[in-house]
Amino acid sequence: MKNSIYLSIIALLFLSCSGGDDDSENAEPTVPVLTLPADNKLCVDNTVSFEWKQSKDKNKSEIIYHIEIALDNQFTEIVETRESYSNSQEIELYQNTAYYWRIKATNSEGLSSAYSKTRKFYTAGEAVVNHLPFSPELVSPVLNTTLSTTTASLKWNAADADGDILNYDVYFGTVNPPVTKISENNAAKTTDVALQSAKEYFWRVVAKDNKGGETVGQIWRFKTN
């Protein structure tokens, strides 16, 4: 009998200490996956339909999506921000403009996912026969990284809504902005450079199509030990 009483007391103490907490812990939603418009898309209508795959939340909390649309792939020139509880949104934008977009998901507890991968698209303009290339995208070296080598391969990506062949001019040096052109009309999306120790380097790429269109990329930087 006494043993039964002792066991009952222990059970009650255990329950009071546990507080009846739910075993599940809240976590941020999964990262949204962009579906429309397709990457590098030329949109003939400047009212653009955006769609993405819904995020999942561990505790099935309500999710709101935060949409950012910018004129540059670093999102320093954001022109539209929207919030949506659904996985689609229609937004009217300017014609003949290159845009970059991304989305993150936030649950009702205030926890947010990382941003989705960035996609880019172009809105067509009236009587426009050529669209400028998209701004070059950094591949390597990683922005603001520090290298311990005497050489480096500068690498980037670029695309054109018209599918035009692209060539590149590369500016590189220790002044900001870089003014020394180290490569001209380069068909490859990479070029090698020699480095000195204890320096900060700046570089940018100009993407040029075969119809005279040019887009000057942003300035990237890295350091050496």
TrEMBL record:
Record's superkingdom? Bacteria
Q: Would you indicate the residue range of the signal peptide?
A: none
PROSITE patterns noted in UniProt:
FN3, PROKAR_LIPOPROTEIN
Domain (Fibronectin type-III): residue spans on this chain: 135-225
In this record, what's one Pfam family? Answer: Ig_Rha78A_N
This chain belongs to the protein called Fibronectin type-III domain-containing protein
Q: Which organism is it from?
A: Flavobacterium hydrophilum
